[in-house]
Amino acid sequence: MKKRRTLNKSRRKQFIAEAQRKFFRGIILLGISFLIIIFLIGDHGIYQLYKIKAQRKITQKRIEELKTEMALLENEKKRLETDLDYIERLAREKYRMAKPSEKVFKVIQKNGK
After folding, report:
1. Which helix (H) or strand (E) is 27 found in, with range?
2. Residue 76: how many other CB atoms lie within 10 Å
3. Residues ≥6 apart with Cβ < 8 Å to 48
4. Dihedral over alpha carbons 16, 22, 27, 28 (to 10 degrees)
């Protein structure tokens, strides 16, 4: 009977030890899974990094477009400040202005021809 109790105690200890190992393995696996999820999806994860890089690329493209537009506007400004022929052409075409001795005629095109 003493052997049986000893066997039961040793089996119980083995069972408890095995249960503890499984529990710790589960905790470790859960922790690693949690870290992987945070690494992939979290605020500083790979997905966020990808989104930030895509947004940066769009912003860089927009900056280049704005730089080009700014250069065109600077060129237009310089022409308006210095080029009298350009100013005269704009005044005639855009604002339908004429010199005092000139007459301005408006040409109307017929539809279909």
Report:
1. helix 2-41
2. 12
3. 42
4. 130
Looking at residue 113, its pLDDT comes to: 54
What CA–CA distance (Å, rounded) separates 59 from 44? 20
Calculate what percentage of the chain has a pLDDT beyond 70.
Answer: 92
| pLDDT one-digit tens code per residue, 21-74 | 999 999 999 999 988 888 777 777 788 888 999 999 999 999 999 999 999 999
What would the two tokens of residue 16 be?
A: 């408890």
| DSSP secondary structure letters along 56-107 | HHHHHHHHHHHHHHHHHHHHHHHHHHH-HHHHHHHHHHHH----TT------
